[in-house]
Amino acid sequence: MESTGSSLIPARLYAPPGLTVPAHAQQITHHYTLLYPEHPERKDDPHYVDFNHFRRTTKATAKCAIGLHRNDFSECTDPSKWPVGLELHHHSIEFSLQQGIDLSWLEADYPGVSDPDTLGAWVESAANLMWLCERHHRGLDGVHVLSASDYEAIKYVRGLVQE
């Protein structure tokens, strides 16, 4: 990669001559409070067995969903050590939030999932689970760290997030 005089911004991100705003680094800070609904402890979840079954049967061949999307694992936590370093993520609905779901809103995006008697099973199913490397789960550019728009952008912009 060409040098730009800045170790943070790759040359290809600099604006061509004549554009008003050149490439730049911007520090982002998010601070907010989540209000988790009352929920059972994970160990008491009758569907946790489904989560564990999915983990056991898919971990040996699992790959980070971000790397798979890119067909490039160069920004993933050390793929040579996988499956160590891979973590299972609830893609749409986290276990701890299912008691607070507005089922009519869920039905709009996931038809047939809004039955309160089967929701827990879906939350712990393959349809709601994805493998991520540590970095893309809880790390620097992880789904639990970045805003939704920034997390989506890392699929397409190499080196977007820096310390």
In short:
This protein is an alpha+beta fold and 163 residues long. It has one domain (35-153).
Q: Which stretches of 5+ consecutive residues score pLDDT under 50? A: 1-5
Rg estimate, integer Å: 19 Å
Strand composition percent = 5-15%
Mean pLDDT: 88
The helical percent reads: 10-25%
Query: How many discrete structural domains?
Result: 1
Distance between the termini: 19 Å
The shape, in one word, is globular
Look at the helices and sheets and give the structural class: alpha+beta
Q: How many strands in all?
A: 2
How many helices does DSSP assign?
6
Q: Strands of the biggest beta sheet: in what spatial order?
A: 1-2
Largest β sheet strand count, sense and barrel closure: 2 strands, antiparallel
Secondary-structure element pattern, one letter each:
HHEHHEHH
List the keywords:
2 strands; two-stranded antiparallel sheet; alpha+beta; 163 residues; disordered N terminus; 24% helix
Describe the structure in your own words.
This protein has helices spanning about 50-60, 65-70, 105-110, 120-125, 135, 150-155, and strands at about 85-90, 130-135. It is α+β, with helices and mostly antiparallel strands. It has one domain. A two-stranded antiparallel ribbon has the order 1-2. The two termini are about 20 Å apart.
